[in-house]
Write a structure and sequence with these properties.
The protein has 150 residues and is mainly beta. The protein has one domain (15-145). The protein has helices at residues 2-12, 62-67; strands spanning 20-28, 36-44, 48-59, 76-88, 96-102, 108-117, 122-131, 139-145. Strand 2 (36-44) and strand 3 (48-59) form a beta hairpin.
Length: 150
């Protein structure tokens, strides 16, 4: 019975992508704790087969960063590309969150949302940072035309 309840609850949780780190560069040396850095991560859209997004973002180092207590900056950059034939897994919803990551201990996160531009037959991905009370207007956008795959 418990297993059925857990399976039902997991089915209600939105399907989000999981990122893997592609690389990183240090931007500032810290005497104690890890350096400040820019990380590049890749994730596949969980509902659109054939699309991979690359996200670059700042990670705060130092003692607080090493302990996971620091708040990362809101700036991020995104580039999504068609990496195979595009196939949709279910109905797409405009503004659907496809990736979300915590960027502070509790209140701040960075997320990627997807839109479908029907007039231009393209997928549009937007990355932005939000906070419980006040988000940031800093954002980045990328678009993928849906083309036949050779």
């Amino acid at each position: 019975m418990r297993l059925a309840i857990v399976a039902l609850m997991l089915g209600l949780v939105p399907q989000l992508a999981v990122a893997e780190q592609v690389g990183e560069v240090d931007t500032a040396f810290k005497w104690l704790g890890p350096n400040h850095k820019i990380v590049v991560e890749a994730f596949d859209d969980p509902k659109v087969e054939g699309v991979t997004c690359y996200l670059s973002r700042a990670k705060t180092g130092g003692i607080k960063g090493g302990l996971g207590l620091a708040e990362d900056r809101a700036e991020a950059s995104i580039a999504c590309r068609q990496v195979g034939p595009i196939r949709f897994d279910g109905q797409l919803k405009d503004g659907e969150v496809v990736f979300k990551e915590r960027t502070s201990l509790v209140f701040k996160s960075m997320q990627v949302v997807r839109f479908f531009d029907e007039a231009r037959n393209a997928l549009v991905y937007l990355v932005y940072s939000d906070r419980l009370i006040e988000g940031s207007p800093q954002n980045a956008v990328t678009a993928i035309p849906i083309l036949p795959w050779p």
